[in-house]
Request: fold
Amino acid sequence: MKPIATTRSTSGMPTGLLAIWWVVGSEIVIFGGLLGSYIMYRLSHDAWANQAANTNTALGTLNTFVLLTSSLFAVLAHRAAESGDGKKAARLLYYTIGGAVTFVCVKAFEWSTEIAHGYTITSNTFWSFYYTAAGIHALHVIAGAIIMAIVARDAAKNMELQRVELIGIYWHFVDIVWIFLFPLLYIAK
Amino acid sequence: MIESIVPAASSYAWEIDYIFTMIFVLTGFWFLLCEVVFFWLIFKFKAKDGQPAEYITGSEPHLKRWITIPHVLVLVCDLFILTAAVKVWYDIKQYLPEPEKTVRVIGQQWAWTFVHPGPDGVLDSSDDIRTVNELHLENETVYHYQLESVDVLHDFSVPVFRLKQDAIPGRVITGWFEPTLEGEFDVQCAEMCGIGHGLMGARVFVESAEKHAAWMATQSPVALAANFPAQRIGKE
Amino acid sequence: MAESIPSDSPAVADDHHGHEEPSFWSKYVFSTDHKMIAMQYMFTGMAMAVIGGFMAYAFRMQLAFPGIEVPGFGIVTPANYNALVTNHGAIMIFWVAMPVLIAAFGNYLIPLMCGCDDMVFPKLNRLSYQIFLLSAVVLLSSFFVEGGGFGGAWTAYPPLSAKAEYSLTPLGSSIWLGAVALEFVAFLLGGINFITTAMNSRAPGMKLYDIPIVIWMIVIASILFLVSVGPLIAGAIMLLFDQQLGTAFFDPARGGDPVLWQHLFWFFGHPEVYVVLLPALGITAEIITVFARKKLFGYKTVLHTTIATGVLSFTVWAHHQFISGVDPRMAHVFTLTTLLISVPIAEMMFVYIATLYGGSIRLTTPMLWGLSFIAEFLIGGVTGIFLGASGADIYFHDTYFVLAHFHYTFFPIAIIGTFAGLTFWFPKMFGRMMNDRLGKIHFWGTIIPFNFIFIPLFVLGMGGQHRRIFDYSYFPELSMPWMQDIRVLATSSLLIMLGFQVVFFYNFIVSLRSGEKASKNPWKSNTLEWTADSPPPHGNWKELPTVYRGPYEYSVPGRDEDYWPQDQPN
Reply:
């Protein structure tokens, strides 16, 4: 049985929505701390540009495209959920998960190539940041995909449709983090 | 107040003692005022039969000023402290007078190595004198120190000089002091540096020019070679 | 008496939430009830406080009588000593102050004072406690691995903390760091719950300015925690990689920068002080208004100064790093912000003192704790000015002056604040009154020795005694007889203080079993939790209350009673 507290909305905003924004807020400062540290280091180490030259910009661009497309599906899923069409929302969420899986596969290919070429997490602090930041981000992608699968399963039965929007907000956040990571790690050479 | 416990042995020690006394007086005043009013209120308004509490919201102007006036006064006191802090900090940490001599201070787990300029007064020349846990200084001489660390963070702290500075591996931090009192004092490591942190003490010897020259003479390579066994025994 | 409140129906035991008797496990261990989770946090925090106190006993004995075999511990080696001080600090802040002040009181009070039946995410709440418990177990396990517990100070500055060859605790330091990171995760989950519950689940009619100050304080503290901890979580991951994978984020020899950690740490570390301070201030506000029968002197003033303090707390972190080799010009900026933050805190103290004016003060045990919080915290506040002023900090940095200063802030927060809250809400939590006489004996037996521990340490700090040294006999100027006498004085005071805690535990257990039955509202308080049964059943009320006014309407002219509960229509 759900507590009555869960059903209240004193602030005028649904509780789930409120909570997800606080989650995103706390995540922003985690990535903010990491990327802030990276930028400070990068500014004082010009030589890192040579290291960054060894990242695979083409695959990075592909992944950016994949994530943006998956975010589009998340938006469409939200719209479908709002109109009460849980089946369609679930289907669109599965497309989003497909994007996440593609992203992780491309990432795995990229990393194995780089490690095979000798660029490991300990080679240089640039690579340490590269693997740490992208790794934490990839964990968020995987976690997001798992939660999305649960939400989609419920949505297909027209249950908890409001959660489609919540996971969508989280997914956009994961996407935006990548929008920051991509230029910082791949393009700035 | 500090100098009654720890001697003031550098040219800027008085500034620290002065700012301490100043903050002590200002904050002490506020502290005593608060505590006196606080205890007075507790005794004055202790519950008595038939005397209900007053209904005060805190927005009554004649009462609210008891908060706003102290509020402004605290701000004024802060300004005084700020001015003094900026001045003292500038003199000690930011301003670097021309040095007469330079010493190198190297921290490592868990000892201090001091590199003194030899009789020629120049660091990094052939007559440099390296010592472990013993720093010899000439009184009333402006020194620069170059602080280094070979492993973890250390902190070069000489309480009688009112001097404290972290040593960071990979960096050379330059600062200054001018000893003004002859004697033998403690040097501490004031940054947690591992198991031996509690043993990482050294001694600083502030000597007159003659005594300092005499000490340097005993440290010349020739003198050391001649006296090595004797001196070794003498130290132990 | 409370029974005269019209909305009260005769108290009947818990009967409206299911009829089957819950099993022991689902009632005490896997409960999602906010009150049970609060108790779990409270008792875990107390158990950790006993461990942290035992550590203090061990290293204080070593300081007073270097080299003796401490009864119950044994010889304190330098490695032991470092591990003890490191973990004493970490435990008292992360595993005592945080769980008790924020999590226990937050969990207990937010739903009850906001007039709802539970937290908005009860399962998340339970998960938060379970992660917290796990973090405590992980932390304690670090003492039993090869190399022993981490001894690099609770600030864990690299390179010492980053490399096993320096710290000599190859596993201990990683386990310690992992435990801290887990604890952060637990409080992030808990914090989101606190914020959303207070924002979204208040009783009908409870407007923003009708929320009791303690709820505001816990919510603002949770927000401060949430916003400040992120960079340190990132830093903890980097440090963990440095320790275990061999990266060089903080290794200067390979392009890293150890000072970066200090920034990440103190960007969190300073707001963290306010994270634990604010709930304690809130508890004090509730207590002094009830026992002075007075409205808070300027509710909005308190709220606004709290918010100002919270915002400013993000701008002061580098005052911990004045002499750590950062650009000397930076010191001026951080001295300015640090002195600025003293203004709202001073104002808050003035407001609390002014609240006593015109009151009808009853010196019960909770009131004594509440008042002593103000009296003692003032010392912590004014001594902070010495350290925030860059010029004076050159001398005081890393001396016992710093140590005494922050114990004068953290002791009032963690110990006085906890005892204040516990003695005040004990009747509500357990349905029985605590023995007032024993409570007062415990109070005086704690407060007086406390001052005799730390006032002398200020003097040692002025004498240049630096911190984290297991034996001062290697420093001739610090091993003078008068200094050793002071160390013995501080240690003996600590022993007396620890001894008096037995009185508390005795009182706690005896009152729990056979104390006088508590009515719904024994203190004649206004806030909503006192309209529920003592102790409140699962679900708190049969019918959730509605709020008609602010929480501090005491001694309103023209009323028979000198209090006016929030849920009473007129």
